[in-house]
Amino acid sequence: MKKAVTTVIVVVILVFFAVLAAAPIVNDRVAKRTADGLADLPLPGGTKLLEEVYQAGKLVGNGNGMQYFGAILIQSGQSLEELQEYYGSFAEHEWECVVERQTGTDVAVIEHGRLSFETDAAQEGYYIVYSWGENHTVFHELDIRGH
């Protein structure tokens, strides 16, 4: 009887730590799917997809909570307004398919931590298109990066 109780306790502890270890992996996959969703959108005319980046964690604002960020870097001959109108047609929410001019390598919208592109957007015609993803699983609460 004592051996069975000990085995159950050990199994419960192992499952708990396995779930904790899986949380960052699952949350990173949500952020990657957010970026992949943007990369899968058809490009407007005269536009080239250069890079894709993503990150999960506490990225902007105060307090606790996981956030899922995905972005693509594009180079385009179209204006910012034209790109905003084009990508806006794919957005279901205001935090999806946001288009801004990109200068340098750093992703300026990320306040906590650092995320950057490899391509240095030093000239005109570079734009970031980004979205915030969602994850409504238990892993959302168990990832220490959100606290």
Description of the structure:
By secondary structure, the chain is of the alpha+beta class. Helix content is 35%, strand content 29%. The protein contains three helices and six strands. A four-stranded antiparallel sheet has the order 1-2-6-3. A two-stranded antiparallel ribbon has the order 4-5.
Question: How confident is the prediction overall: mean pLDDT?
Answer: 90
Q: Let me know the number of strands.
A: 6
Rg calculated over all Cα atoms: 19 Å
Which strand order do you get reading across the main beta sheet?
A: 1-2-6-3
Unreliable spans are none
Helix percentage:
25-40%
Defining traits:
35% helix, 3 helices, alpha+beta, 147 residues
Strand and helix layout:
Blueprint: H1 2-39, E1 47-57, E2 67-76, H2 80-88, E3 98-101, E4 104-106, E5 116-121, E6 126-133, H3 139-142
Antiparallel strand pairs: 1-2, 2-6, 3-6, 4-5
Summarize the structure.
The protein is of the alpha+beta class and 147 residues long.
